[in-house]
Amino acid sequence: MKYYSKVLDGIQAVCKWIMIVSMFAFTAVIIVSVFFRYVLENSLTWSEQVSRFLFVWVIMLGIPIIYREKIATDLDLVTEHFPPIIRQVVAILMDILIGVFAVYYGNAGLRYTIKAGKNIFQGLNIPSGYIYASEVACGAILLLFVFERIGERIGEIGNIAKSRKEAEN
Questions:
Q1: Can you tell me the distance from the alpha carbon of 125 to that of 129, in angstroms, rounded to the nearest whole number?
Q2: Main-chain phi, psi angles of 39, to 5 degrees
Q3: DSSP secondary structure letters along 138-162
Q4: At residue 88, does pLDDT exceed 70?
């Protein structure tokens, strides 16, 4: 599991760097676009598409990171009163539900990518399927992170059971 987590650390680091670079590029494109529109009175035809493309990719790469870093909301309010093992089982069920969503979302994104792949962004001259590929990436990375989280929770159940046995002896 440690090797798997190390690989996921690398994937997460790459995603973060892509997000950072994309946000800088997004900001630069918006600033240049505003300058051209209001100072030079000449709009850039491609700036809106580039900014939308980058923004969607930042969001889609951010979703799995938010999940892995445990920044997203959880059912703590409901499960905090449960016994520790039941709390972990409920958390695993929630993780499975998130995994099912990741598979569904990634699959839908793949269908959209294939379907829209022939359409071209006129301003950028690239296939519009590239924007839908972000959904595939989001679903795949999220699913990898879900597997890691479920493994951690199963290990936690084992630790809880082990400490209970030691307390009984």
A1: 12
A2: -95, -50
A3: HHHHHHHHHHHHHHHHHHHHHHHHH
A4: yes
